[in-house]
Amino acid sequence: MEVVIVPDAKAGGELIAEAMAALVRRKSDALLGVATGSTPLPIYEALAAKVRAGEVDASRARICQLDEYVGLPVGHPESYRSVVLREVVAPLGLDESAFMGPDGSAADVQGACEAYDRALAEAGGVDLQLLGIGTDGHIGFNEPCSSLASRTRIKTLTEQTRVDNARFFDGDIEQVPHHVITQGIGTILEARHLVLLATGEGKADAVAATVEGPVASVVPASALQLHPHATVIVDEAAASKLKLADYFRHTFANKPGWQGL
Ligand SMILES: N[C@@H]1[C@@H](O)[C@H](O)[C@@H](COP(=O)(O)O)O[C@@H]1O
Questions:
Q1: CATH at 34
Q2: Active-site residue flag, 67
Q3: Ligand 1: distance of its center to the CA of 54 in Å?
Q4: What is the domain extent for residue 159?
Q5: Which of 111, 231, 239, 240 lies 20 to 30 Å from 134, alpha-carbon distance?
Q6: Which of these is catalytic: 103, 136, 164, 235?
Q7: According to its UniProt record, which residues of this chain constitute the active site (predicted)?
Q8: Which residue ranges in the chain fall short of pLDDT 70?
Q9: 246 classed as catalytic
């Protein structure tokens, strides 16, 4: 696992956007797995800016989603499908046909989960999967004690996650669904490159447990330690509880430029 400490969220967004742009320059139809929440927004802004500036042609890129609420009406502005179409697909100048996601309104939720895992495999697998992290260490919506081998499936949110996400629903926790579909941890680990961005002091404990704690399902993000190409990018506040912070700084400062992320 590589840990990169950046001064702030904007620098993290720029670094990751450049890694995504470099991937798309190498593989124009790359399948980019995106995450929701507030943290990755600087990545999407930086990548869209590169597209507008002609630094990368993303017209053949494909976008896929990590997770989704179950039971929101189709087209609800806070369904993750709507969020990804609005925050990622449209700003990159892509059409909805470039987008894949699980169907949170399906009558057969389990069938929709299995169909999504199949669709990801048929699309050739995810090239780069962006991840955020919940305050309890969740990735996607894999709450603590999710199986490290799990596939895309339905999960029940913890109260803490519903409280954290109520801000997207007018601060009203009653509007936050209890159930979600999420790529499983086993599914996520199949992506070729995992890139987790965490910013702010509120993520410091989860980041320390992820990077320096044992691999344990009680901290779902710790599964990144099992992946051969995982990059964790944190700002100073999110890095504040890392014992090896100086080592991570030293390693990145001395990294050969050609290596990329
Ligand atoms: N399902 C999403 C996660 O993918 C995201 O990482 C997390 C943190 O969100 P934020 O970045 O807003 O803190 O929120 C939600 O639970």
A1: 3.40.50.1360
A2: yes
A3: 30
A4: 15-190
A5: 111
A6: 136
A7: 67, 136, 138, 143
A8: none
A9: no
